[in-house]
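Tokens in:
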């Protein structure tokens, strides 16, 4: 039975889950910007004490790989590597946006019993100004459009919204509520990344032995992808 610890630090969430066969057995989580350096190691220690397990009981370490906060990702990946080196464990990297999409899909199924096949899931992580990190997922979690940086404007999603329902969520989606008004647009407030959303994705990678090179693995920052031309102010 595989035992995996999951770390999430890509945004203002600091989250740790210890899971067996994808089922959480201990969890710690806080939503507080710049908290990772102070609480991540403490949370790891607490989930081990709560579960009665030790780092040597682990079969792998799973970490949210980004995109997201440079500092948060550096801390999370550094801690994950330390656990791997210290206990001779494989490292599993999970896309932050993939995990968010998985979490939203589970939420919709739990709350509504199903998810319409035509629904598009669009997680968003705030970048800067009107920029976000995002990807578009079908209801079965296939990529409609892979991870990319995007400048959001009033007409950015017009064609998609004319064709199908779109669920926007994550802290980057909050800025869309000011510029997008369409009956097919659905905004889910307060949805945050969580290491809970990594458990099944990481278990699949563990079974497939899709591991990272611990020495050379780096977070996926998705930085410096956006170049924009300043618009003239018409006043």
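Residues out:
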């Amino acid at each position: 039975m595989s035992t995996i610890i999951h770390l999430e630090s890509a945004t203002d969430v600091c989250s740790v889950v210890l899971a067996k066969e994808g089922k959480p057995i201990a969890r710690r989580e806080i939503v507080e910007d710049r908290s990772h350096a102070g609480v991540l190691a403490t949370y790891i220690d607490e989930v081990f004490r709560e579960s009665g397990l030790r780092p040597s009981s682990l079969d792998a370490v799973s970490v949210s790989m980004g995109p997201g906060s440079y500092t948060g990702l550096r801390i999370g990946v550094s801690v994950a590597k330390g656990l791997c080196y210290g206990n001779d464990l494989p490292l599993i990297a999970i896309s932050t946006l993939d995990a968010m999409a998985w979490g939203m899909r589970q939420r919709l199924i739990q709350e509504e019993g199903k998810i319409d096949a035509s629904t598009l899931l669009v997680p968003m992580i705030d970048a800067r100004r009107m920029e976000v990190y995002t990807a578009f997922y079908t209801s079965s979690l296939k990529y409609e459009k892979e991870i990319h940086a995007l400048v959001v404007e009033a007409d950015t999603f017009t064609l998609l919204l004319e064709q199908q329902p779109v669920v926007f969520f994550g802290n980057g989606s909050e800025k869309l509520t000011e510029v997008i008004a369409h009956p097919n647009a659905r905004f889910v407030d307060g949805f945050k990344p969580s290491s809970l959303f990594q458990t099944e994705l990481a278990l699949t990678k563990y079974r497939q032995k899709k591991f990272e090179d611990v020495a050379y693995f780096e977070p996926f920052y998705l930085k410096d992808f956006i170049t924009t031309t300043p618009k003239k102010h018409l006043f």
